[in-house]
Batch of 2 targets.
Target 1
Amino acid sequence: MNFDTIIRKTEKLSEGIYLIRLHSARIASKAVPGQFVNVRCSDGLNAYLRRPISICRVDRKNNTVDIVFMNRGKGTNLLCSFAQGDTLDAMGPLGNGFTLPKEKERIAVVGGGIGVFPLLYLLEESHCACKTAFLGFRTKEAIVLQDAFHRTAQKLVIATDDGSYGTNGLITAPFMAWLEAERPDRVYSCGPAPMMKIVARACVQKGIFCEVSMEQRMGCGIGACLVCACKVQDGDDYQYAHVCKDGPVFPAERLIF
Ligand SMILES: Cc1cc2nc3c(=O)[nH]c(=O)nc-3n(C[C@H](O)[C@H](O)[C@H](O)COP(=O)(O)OP(=O)(O)OC[C@H]3O[C@@H](n4cnc5c(N)ncnc54)[C@H](O)[C@@H]3O)c2cc1C
Ligand code: FES
C-alpha cells in the first residue's frame, strides 16, 4: 500500500521544533483529533522503524495535515531535512481519537511539551461553550503555537519550568487551583506521564470525564508487534493494551501509570 504524501510546507517554529504540512486527501478526510501518523524518516536502514507523530491540525478544504515535532534523535533529525515538494511516507490516520465534547459543554486541555500538538487539533475541532487551555513548556523559547491556542481557547494559561514566561513551575499547579473553583465537563491531557498522572487522578477523584493520550515507543503502529504495551485496569486486575491500536487516547480511570 502506498502512503506517500507531498510536503506543502516546512517551518522551524522554535529551536528544535519543526512543522511539516502534508498534502493528503486520504489523511485529511479521515483524521480525528488524537490520531497520529506513522512516518518513514528515511528510505534505507537508517531509522528503519516509522516514527509516530500526532496530527496537529487538518485543513479539509485544502486536504492538508500539519504535524509538529521535536528533533529528538535519529528519526526526527532525518525528518528535519525534508523540504517543500518532497514526498513523505506517512501511514495514517492511526489510533483512536479523543471523545469530542457536546455543544454546551465546558472543557479544559492540559498539555506539556510535545504533548500540546494534538490538543490544538482537539480544541479547533471542539465546537463547545467554553475552552480553557493549560500548557506547560520548559522555557519561554520553547513556547510554540501560542497564537493558535489563543485563537481557539477562551482562556490560555502558560507555565514555564524556569519561570521565564507565564506561571513559574509546572502547569499542573494552575490547573489544580482552577479545578478547585471550576467544574469542567471534560478534561483532556497529553504530555509527560507524571503530568498526566496528576491530571488523571484529580479528575477521577472528582468524577470528571478525563481522557489522556499516551506516548510510547512504537514499532509497527498497527497492533502487530506488541512494542507499545501499556498497563490498563481490568476489573480488580490489570492487563496490557496497545497504545497504537487501543489508544493513544485512554479514559483516565483505565490507565495504570
Ligand atoms: C502516539 C504518539 C504521538 C506522538 N506525537 C508526537 C508529536 O506530535 N510531536 C513529537 O515531537 N513527538 C511525538 N511523539 C514522540 C515521537 O514519536 C518521538 O519523539 C520520536 O519517535 C523519536 O524518534 P527519534 O528517532 O528522533 O528519536 P530516538 O533516537 O528514537 O530517541 C530519542 C529520545 O526520544 C525518546 N523516545 C523515542 N520515541 C519515543 C516515544 N514514542 N515516546 C517517548 N519517547 C520516545 C527516546 O527514549 C530517546 O530518549 C509521539 C509519540 C507517540 C507514541
Ligand atoms: S507499535 Fe506495534 S503493536 Fe503497537
Target 2
Amino acid sequence: MGDDIMVDNICAIATPYGVGAISVIRASGPLAIELVNKVFKGKDLTKVKSHTINYGHIVDNGNIVDEVLANVYIAPKSFDGENMVEINCHGGIYVTNKVLKVLLKNGFRLAERGEFSKRAFLNGKLDLTEAEAIMDIISSNNDIALDSSLKSLRKNTYNLVSSFREKILDIMAKIEVNIDYPEYEDSVDVTHDYLKPIVEELIKDMEKILENSKISTLAISGIKTAIVGKPNVGKSSLLNMLLDEDKAIVSNIPGTTRDLVEGSINIGNVTLKLIDTAGIRESDDFVESIGIKRSIDALNKCDLVLLVIDSSNELEDEDKQLLELTKNKNRIIILNKSDLESKVKIDDSISMSALNNEGIEILSKKIIEVTEINSIYDMNDYYLNNTRQVELMRKAYCALLDSMTAINNLSDISLIEIDIKSAFDYLGEITGEASPDELITALFTKFCLGK
Ligand SMILES: Nc1nc2c(ncn2[C@@H]2O[C@H](COP(=O)(O)OP(=O)(O)OP(=O)(O)O)[C@@H](O)[C@H]2O)c(=O)[nH]1
Ligand SMILES: [Mg+2]
C-alpha cells in the first residue's frame, strides 16, 4: 500500500451480505466516475453534477447486468474525499456480486476493510474519533450508545481532546519562547510556580473525564456480565429467563453447563452482554474442569457479576468462596429459587425465581443502580467513548503526573517540558493527529467491508 493508496480505484459492496430490496456498491478513486461510466448505460456520468442520482444499466460486453441508480459524488465533496459512485442495484446476492465483478474487470480493485473510512481520514474528512463514531453508531444497541456516537460524529470527542491539546500547546509555546528568547519582554516568565496551577488544573480535569469514562464506555459498548455460582443454582435458568429463550441447557444434574453460553439483552438503556458459565466447584471431570477454568476467566474479565445462590439450601463453602472472590467487583447477589422456602440471608442481595420468571424488575433496578449508568446524563458530554481513547488519555494523564513531580522537584524546565510534550502526543493519538501508521491501519481494519 503506502503512497499509492490514493491513486487506485476501489470498490466494495457496502450493504450486508444477504437478500434485500437493494444493495449498494461503493466505488471510489480518482477515476471512479470514468470507470463506472464505461460500464454504465444511461446519462454520461462524467458530465453529470455532483450529488445526483442517475438511472441506467450496468452492462458487461453489451449485456445488461442490472438496472441501477448511480449516485455521483465529485471530489472533494464525498464521504472519503475522492470521486465516488454509489451504485444501487437490486438486492440479490447473485446480481450484486455480478455488478461487483463487472467493476473488478474494469479497473477497480476490491477495497480492504474500512478502506473508505481510512481514505476519509487520510483526506482530512474525518478524525479518528469521528471514524470510531461511525463504527459505534453501527454497533450501538441503545439510546445512550447511539446518542454519544452521534455526538462524537459531530466532533464532541475531538473538541474535548483538542481543548486539552490547545492548553498544553500554549504551555509548550511559552516554555519555548522563554528558552529561545529570554530577553523578550512580553513573554511570561515560565517558573515552577507559574506551571504548577496550570498543570494541576489539567490533571484535575482529566481525572474527571477518566472517572466519567468508566461509566460511559460501559454504557456505549455494553456491560460484560458473567452469571456465576456453584453448580445447579439456576444460572442457565436465569440466562434463559433474561433472554426469553431456551438458549442454555437446564437440568437438575449439577455440572450441566460445560462451556460459556452468551447472549445480549437491553434493560432500559443498559445493554448487557451476558455470559452463562459452568458451575464452579472442585471437579475431577476433565471437560467440566476446563469449563470451570473458563468460568473463572470470564469472572475476571467481566464488568459485572451476577452471583447466583440457591436460597433453598444452606450456604456451602463454594458459595462462601465465590462471595469472597467477587467482593471487589461490581456485583449483584441473586438469591434464586425464591419460590422455595428460604434458608439463606445475605445483606444487599435480591430474591428471584428463575423458574417462575420472578424478580426481573428488581434485578433491572439493581443493575442500573450498581453500574451507575444513568449518571451519564449528568456528565455534560465530559467523557470518552471507548477504551482506546481512555487508555491514551490515561497515558497523557500519567505524563502530566510525571511533569508535576518534576515541577515539585524544581527540575529543569526543559526536562518538565518533555513530559508535557508526551501528554500532548498521547492526546494527539486519540484524534489521529499524532498516530503512527500501523495503528491507523489496525484501527480501520476493524470496520465492516464497504465502510
Ligand atoms: N424451584 C426452583 N428451581 C429452579 C429455579 N431456577 C432453576 N431451578 C432448577 O434448578 C436446576 C438447575 O438449574 P440450571 O439453570 O441448570 O442451573 P445451573 O446453575 O445452570 O447449573 P450448572 O450448569 O450445572 O452449573 C434445574 O432443575 C432448574 O429447573 C428456581 O427459581 N426455582
Ligand atoms: Mg448451567
